Amino acid sequence: MMVRSAALLLCSTVFTALGSSMALAETTTTTTETKQQQKPTETKPQTVKVIAHDKNDAEQVIVTAHLDRMRSELSPSTGATVHKFSRQALETIPGGDNAPLNQVLLQAPGVAQDSYGQIHVRGDHNEVQFRLDGVQLPEGLSVFGQALMTRFADNMSLTTGALPSQFGFLQAAVVDINTKNGTTNSGGNLSLYGGARDYFFPSLQYGFHKGKWDFFATADYVHDRTGIENTTSSFNAIHDLSEQYHFLGHLRYTADEDTRISFIAGISNAEYQLPNNPGQQTQFAMPAYSGSDLAQQLNGSVDSAHLDEHQKQITDFAILALQKEMGDFSLQSSVFSRYSSLRYSPDWLGDLVYNGIAQQAARSVFSMGTQHDVTWRAAKDHTVRFGFQLFVERNTSKSLSRVFAQDGEDADGNATFGTTPLSIYDGSGKTGTVYGLYAQDEWRPLNNLTINYGLRFDGVSEYTAEKQVSPRLNIVWKPWKGGVIHAGYSRYFTPPPFEVVSSSSLYKFAGTSAAPSVYQNNKVRAERDHYFDAGIEQTILPGWRVSFDAYYKLAHNLIDEGQFGAPIILSGFNYRRGQVNGYEVSTSYDRGPLSLYGNFAWSRAIGKDITSAQFNMSPDDLAYIQHRWIHLDHDQRWTASAGAAYSFFHKTRFPLRLSATMVYGSGLRADGLVPNGVALTPYATVNFSAVETIHNTFGSAWPGDTQFRIDVINLGDHTYKLRDGSGIGVGAPQYGLRRTILGGISQGF
């Protein structure tokens, strides 16, 4: 309190002396990680530009920094592996704030890319949780990337490894986004960005603070023909237009230096054309089909290059949080809600004759919940943390399907079907809860040794009713200057995803062209893991660090997900046993105008015996996997990323920044002689960016920077497959984006 009061007095004196001069002042706030955290790299100082109206502005800056630091200490990642993205790092990546969030995360170690914007961290399918200012968002249904925008992040981190006990439910990785606010990002910015493939991306952001109020909001519109991966190796996809709208806003009220109320809201609305795969053979067309009554009654096309399938996705969320400091106690209490929906519209005729089923499918999840985190500085060497989370969720699923009815068998015993389609309606809904409680003690028996131990109790009551007590233990040791060694064990409990199908729907399709070959449909159960992690990090020279990390996971009822059928809706299933292990090597150098980084990872993810949602699989695959280990469909043995950036004239009004990033993958799995028996061809892609900035372009008449940028995605125009259409739970082929040149201009005000 004495230090803070002195700082307030100093700032008050400075701003009083400035009086009505309205001079532009810069206040630098330095926030470092807790000493116990595995990653010792400090967060870079944040420069906060403040219009000096009066001394209250300086006070607002200091209070904001103080409360931000207290919030970060509610959830330290002691003993885990943390990869940080500062604001500077986010701006350096080609595309900058225009880059999708999943593309940014590919620059972290151990992150593999997949189709539909999915990422896989350390051999898990999709178990990544997203947090905004420390509050976990409930899981949604978004398939083609995230509803969150890079532009909304002031900085963020990706945390993996043996997580402390405050992290539950989705535990492959934790993406924690510290949002922009009107104090650190005052003023506005208008950006126009676009280029190849009808890419048009205007965006606007604005923030301000006045007195105890703080506001920041950003909105954008995306129009392009690259919404979903191309199903062919051609330069442009067929039927791939997407229209997307995003909005994120943040309103905060700081009652006093120890109390803050925050409200965050977001809207994402996206509609996609599904790319066509030309040259496919119809499965249910008959010689006289084109002249039949069926062709006259239904709309659509029977040419697979001219199908017209669409998918629409909506995500809305809101978070209301109270942060409070009370002596030795710090807390953040929040309530939140999230609505997520997905609707697939088929080509009624085309889907029917190619697949034997044309299905209009809609799913939605409405979630409400609360999260409470408390830190108690109990003693000099003991910091106790405890809290709980509760989600109440309502899941609904509706579908209208048209299928052919079986009318007999041919001479070879194959089913034959009539020419008149049947309509089958199916709908279901389920309400359930997911909850977790935790307590832990961060103990420092020695100045260079930290032991964090704790317990979680998690439960789920939805499609399955299960619970588990999970111990966690992390040890961090700093044996010499610049060196950090960590080791940890975590027991994990992961509730199953919502994307499951009730058994009653299967028998509605019996005797039709959409009849499953297997009618077994055991419920999807929670995954239970033993997770081990150990690593070392060393600072070799100022600005240069290297690290090595190894992990091993033993899973029971390992959860995997796949796309089964034409609607791109992921469905969950279990392997009775699973093993995931690997290691990561990372290095970075950041000093002056030069920054470099490189990551290299090896991983193996295998599973045995599919024990739920078996109707999605073929009998032969089920029989083979029952007694044999197979690679998971998202298993990629080698993954690497690297980047370099250099700023020319960085001390002038006209800095020029050149940067490049690289992503390498040895290839996801595909079917060979056995399920998921081979890997696709390795690939490496390079992205390039050039950004010219003019500081304070129009002088004092109109403060604000102007920025020009050009980005080249896949600089070498490398043709590569993410998927070939085969594998357990894999739909159509998907190819990576070919060379795409984009440019933009932004103006601050």
From TrEMBL:
Signal peptide coordinates: 1-25
A GO-annotated cellular component: cell outer membrane
GO terms classed as biological process: siderophore transmembrane transport
Keywords: Cell outer membrane, Membrane, Receptor, Signal, TonB box, Transmembrane, Transmembrane beta strand, Transport
GO molecular function: siderophore uptake transmembrane transporter activity
Topology with respect to the bilayer: Multi-pass membrane protein
Matches recorded under PROSITE patterns: TONB_DEPENDENT_REC_3
Record domain TonB-dependent receptor-like beta-barrel: where: 277-715
SUPFAM superfamilies given in the database record: Porins
Pfam families named among the record's database cross-references: TonB_dep_Rec_b-barrel
Subcellular location: Cell outer membrane
Recorded family membership: Belongs to the TonB-dependent receptor family.
Protein name as annotated: TonB-dependent receptor-like beta-barrel domain-containing protein
Organism: Acetobacter pasteurianus subsp. pasteurianus
